[in-house]
Amino acid sequence: MRSTSSKNRTGRAARAAAAVLAGALALSLTACGGDGDDDGNEQGGSGNEETAGAVTLPKLNGESLEVAAVWTGAEQANFKQVLAEFEKRTGAKVTFVPAQDPIINFLGSKVAGGQPPDIAMLPQPGAIKQAVDKKWAKPLGADAIKELQENYSQGWQDIGKVDNKQYGVYYKAANKSLIWYNTQVFENAGATEPKTWDELLTTAQTVYDSGVTPFSVGGAEGWTLTDWFENIYLSQAGPKKYDQLAKHEIKWTDPSVKDALTALAQVWGKKDYVAGGATGALQTDFPASVTQTFTGGDQPKAGMVYEGDFAQVNIVQAKAKVGTDAKVFPFPAVGDTAPVVSGGDAAVILQDSKAAQALATWLASPDAATIQAKLGGYLSPNKNVDNSAYPNEVQQKIAKALIDSGDDFRFDMSDQAPQAFGGTPGKGEWKALQDFLKNPTDIAGTQRKLEADAAAAYGN
Description:
Layout: H1 15-28, E1 49-52, E2 55-58, E3 64-69, H2 73-90, E4 93-98, H3 103-112, E5 119-122, H4 125-133, H5 142-151, H6 154-158, E6 161-162, E7 165-166, E8 168-175, E9 178-182, H7 183-189, H8 197-209, E10 215-216, H9 222-237, H10 239-246, H11 255-268, H12 277-281, H13 286-291, E11 304-306, H14 311-317, E12 326-330, E13 341-349, H15 354-363, H16 366-375, H17 393-404, E14 410-411, H18 419-422, H19 428-438, H20 443-458
Parallel strand pairs: 3-4, 3-5, 10-11, 13-14
Antiparallel strand pairs: 1-2, 5-13, 6-7, 8-13, 9-11, 9-12
Family: Belongs to the bacterial solute-binding protein 1 family.
Keywords: Signal, Transport
InterPro entries: Bact_solute-bd_prot1, SBP
C-alpha cells in the first residue's frame, strides 16, 4: 500500500496523550492469535431509496462511477468488494481505476484530458489541499457530512478539511508504529520483544548472532523510509518539534534531525543488519520486504520488518498466520515515550453528482468499513465499526487502540508536506532518505539536501 501514507493538519496531541496510546499498544500487542452483519435498524425510505443500517443510499440504476486509487493486489481486491456492495444496494456501476504515485500527477493528466474519476482516494492531506487549490475537489454534501459526524472523531474529520470545509472522508487509516517479527526466528535466537531503542538494537544483535539478518527494509519505495525517520523523530524530539518540522517551521538542518538520522544509522549503517545490504534494500519494494520476512522457514531473509498494520495483507500472502507465525510489537521508545504515527487515505469527490455524493456517504459508513475490516489488512478510523469485525486478535487490538486514542495521534509527517517534498518517487524526502540508506555516514549532507528540497517545496 502506498499507504497508505495521507496530509492537512490535525489532532496535535500532547506528549502525555501519545504516551497513553503507546502504552495501550505496548500492553495490547504482545498477545497474538485468534479469529475474529447484520444491518439492523432499518430506516424508512421514500420508495426510491434502499436503506441498510444507519446509512441510507439512493437508487442509482444506470449511473456509472469511477474511483481511482494507488492500491494494488489484495488491498485493491478487498476494496472492490466494498464497491460491489454499493453497486448491489444502489444499482450503480462502479469501476476501479488503478492510479500511479504521485496520484496528484495522475489525476492532473486525467483532468487535462477531460476525464477525471468521480472519486479519488488521496493518501495525503497535502494532496487534498492541492486538489482543492486546483479547483478539482468538490465539497462533501450534507448526507456525507452527517455520516462523518456520526462515525468519526473530530480529529479525523478535521484532516479531511481545507479552509474549514469538508472535502475528504478518511476511509482507511494506518497505525504506522509497529514492527513485525518472525516468531520462529525469535524463538530460535532467544530474542525478546524490545520496548526501547537500545533494547531493539540488542534484539537485532541477538537475531544476527543466530544467523539471520535482523531487518528487512523496502527501500525501493521512499515512503517506507520516511516512516522509519518519523517514528524515531517523534519519540526522540517530541510532539512539539515534530509539528514544527512537519510545517517547516524549523529547518531540516536542526540538531534534532541530526540526532534522528544518527539513531537511524545505527540500523541502516550496521554491517549485515539489513537484508541484501543497501543495494538489495533499494531494489526491494514494500510487499517483498514483508513477504521475505515470513518465507523460508526458520531461515528467512530477515527476522523483522517495520511497517504499519496493513503489512498483514502481505503476511497472509506469504502464507504466514498473523498471531502465530508473525507477531508484532510497538515501535520502541527512542526518547521518553514510544511514538504513535498514523496515516490514511481519504475519498475526495472530483465530479460532483448524486452518485458521487452517495458513494462518499457509503464510504463514511460503518457498513462499508466493516466489509473490508473482515477481509483483513485494513484499519478504519470509523468508531462505529464493531471491533469483532477484524479477523484476528492482533488487528482487533490495533484497531481498538486507534479508536480509543480519539484525536490524540500524530499524522504521518511526509504526508503533511507538499507532495513535491513528501510524496514523489525520486524526489524530495523520499530520494534523500534512499540516498541516506545507501550512505548512512553522510548525515550533514543528507540534512542539507532535505532542507534545500523542503525550502523549495514549502516556498520558504
